[in-house]
């Protein structure tokens, strides 16, 4: 199985579009992880671990997904993907350089703007990459391409925190911002190596943006499977949002460690993601996607409550490792269910709707996290998050009872 995956990966990587976008994403991941950890460590240091500002970092990172995902997905079908991706990365680099000048002038809050702008622009770039794959990658290889990108994400979950913390601790926030801008600019240069966009395959919708978005919303409302997934997304998103900004307080308050220890916890989580993803690639076809998704959510339930309760470093690392191991179950289950139950012509808009369904409630949770921690306790917030993960699992029960994959029916909106 390992040899098949290895040689399959080489075959997919021979595709110029895949190879170029993957190299671009490597630089983007480096830039994003330097951004995430440098800004997190700098803000916690300058605000003396203020939970409001720590939570606000995550809000400005994820709010654009809720606000701009469906717009970006819709425009991805209208604009030329290569030009869109290059312009997005170039503007991200420029925005970081502007923020650098402001920070050097003494206004650290401008760091939040750098995170917000790059997150907004990624909502236009990411669906454009998916459009390129749809156009230029054989259908039989699309799953391998998605698996490659998942592995890339997991890899940077391992090395990203260490690299980001190292650069900040040794060189400071200014150098971190310069490296971030360089990574975004480098990604834009690599994407310029892509062949020219085919004008005939660029989207030229005759309807307005509002009409396209409305049609996508109506499509989701008429699908029982997508509605159930949407409800599960909402509960899981709220659960994830409540704990996402509080990881650093688990390190400081529960474990009594320095804030920089967070990188090792995230390393353990990311390494487990790599292992879990490799295992699922071997058995994935034997397990229904809704079962994978439910297993991932149940593992998140137990892991979240356990991490909030634990004051032992070894136990916390073990729970984070188990949560990371089951995370690919959620990722693969979600994407497979959407692919199985969505027409090709609605894929972009369904993704643009379902993603914000999760992220919108995640942002709400992140906004409330700091206040709830102060009002209750760290464990109280983690326990509440675990209950929400359990509710998300219960919402999936109708899908678990459905033994046969439902065929995608032609949309009445078409």
Automatic annotation (TrEMBL):
<feature type="transmembrane region" description="Helical">
    <location>
        <begin position="229"/>
        <end position="252"/>
    </location>
</feature>
<dbReference type="GO" id="GO:0005886">
    <property type="term" value="C:plasma membrane"/>
</dbReference>
<dbReference type="GO" id="GO:0022857">
    <property type="term" value="F:transmembrane transporter activity"/>
</dbReference>
<feature type="transmembrane region" description="Helical">
    <location>
        <begin position="350"/>
        <end position="372"/>
    </location>
</feature>
<protein>
    <submittedName>
        <fullName>MFS transporter</fullName>
    </submittedName>
</protein>
<feature type="transmembrane region" description="Helical">
    <location>
        <begin position="26"/>
        <end position="46"/>
    </location>
</feature>
<feature type="domain" description="Major facilitator superfamily (MFS) profile">
    <location>
        <begin position="17"/>
        <end position="401"/>
    </location>
</feature>
<dbReference type="InterPro" id="IPR036259">
    <property type="entry name" value="MFS_trans_sf"/>
</dbReference>
<feature type="transmembrane region" description="Helical">
    <location>
        <begin position="378"/>
        <end position="400"/>
    </location>
</feature>
<dbReference type="InterPro" id="IPR020846">
    <property type="entry name" value="MFS_dom"/>
</dbReference>
<keyword id="KW-0472">Membrane</keyword>
<keyword id="KW-0812">Transmembrane</keyword>
<feature type="transmembrane region" description="Helical">
    <location>
        <begin position="175"/>
        <end position="194"/>
    </location>
</feature>
<feature type="transmembrane region" description="Helical">
    <location>
        <begin position="264"/>
        <end position="284"/>
    </location>
</feature>
<keyword id="KW-0813">Transport</keyword>
<dbReference type="Pfam" id="PF07690">
    <property type="entry name" value="MFS_1"/>
</dbReference>
<feature type="transmembrane region" description="Helical">
    <location>
        <begin position="52"/>
        <end position="73"/>
    </location>
</feature>
<dbReference type="InterPro" id="IPR011701">
    <property type="entry name" value="MFS"/>
</dbReference>
<keyword id="KW-1003">Cell membrane</keyword>
<feature type="transmembrane region" description="Helical">
    <location>
        <begin position="317"/>
        <end position="338"/>
    </location>
</feature>
<feature type="transmembrane region" description="Helical">
    <location>
        <begin position="145"/>
        <end position="169"/>
    </location>
</feature>
<keyword id="KW-1133">Transmembrane helix</keyword>
């Amino acid at each position: 199985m390992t040899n098949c995956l290895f040689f399959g990966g080489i075959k997919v990587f021979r595709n110029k579009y895949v190879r170029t976008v993957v190299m671009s994403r490597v630089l983007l991941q480096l830039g994003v992880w330097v951004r995430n950890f440098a800004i997190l460590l700098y803000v916690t240091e300058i605000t003396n671990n203020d939970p409001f500002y720590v939570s606000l970092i995550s809000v400005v990172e994820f709010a654009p997904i809720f606000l701009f995902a469906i717009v970006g997905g819709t425009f991805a079908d209208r604009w030329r993907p290569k030009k869109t991706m290059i312009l997005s990365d170039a503007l991200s680099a420029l925005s970081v350089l502007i923020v650098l000048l402001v920070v050097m002038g003494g206004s650290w809050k401008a760091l939040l703007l750098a995170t917000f702008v790059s997150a907004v622009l990624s909502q236009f770039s990411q669906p454009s990459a998916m459009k390129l794959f749809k156009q230029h990658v054989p259908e039989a290889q699309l799953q391998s391409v998605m698996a490659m990108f998942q592995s890339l994400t997991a890899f940077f979950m391992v090395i990203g925190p260490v690299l980001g913390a190292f650069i900040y601790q040794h060189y400071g926030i200014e150098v971190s911002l310069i490296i971030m801008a360089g990574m975004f600019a480098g990604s834009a240069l690599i994407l310029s190596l892509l062949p020219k966009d085919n004008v005939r395959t660029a989207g030229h919708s005759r309807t307005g943006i509002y009409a396209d978005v409305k049609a996508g919303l109506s499509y989701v409302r008429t699908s029982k499977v997508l509605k159930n997934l949407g409800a599960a997304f909402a509960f899981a998103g709220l659960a994830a949002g409540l704990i996402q900004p509080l990881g650093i307080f688990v390190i400081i308050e529960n474990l009594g460690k320095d804030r920089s220890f967070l990188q090792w916890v995230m390393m353990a989580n990311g390494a487990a993601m790599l292992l879990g993803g490799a295992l699922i690639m071997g058995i994935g076809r034997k397990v229904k996607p809704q079962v994978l998704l439910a297993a991932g959510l149940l593992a998140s339930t137990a892991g979240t409550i356990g991490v909030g309760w634990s004051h032992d470093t070894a136990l916390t690392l073990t729970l984070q490792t188990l949560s990371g191991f089951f995370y690919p179950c959620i990722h693969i289950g979600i994407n497979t269910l959407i692919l199985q139950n969505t027409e090709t012509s609605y894929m972009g808009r369904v993704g643009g709707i379902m993603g914000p369904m999760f992220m919108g409630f995640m942002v709400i949770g992140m906004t409330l996290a700091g206040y709830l921690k102060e009002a209750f306790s760290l464990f109280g917030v983690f326990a509440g998050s675990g209950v929400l993960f359990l509710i998300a699992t219960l919402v999936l029960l109708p899908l678990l009872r459905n033994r046969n994959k439902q065929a995608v029916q032609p949309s009445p909106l078409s």
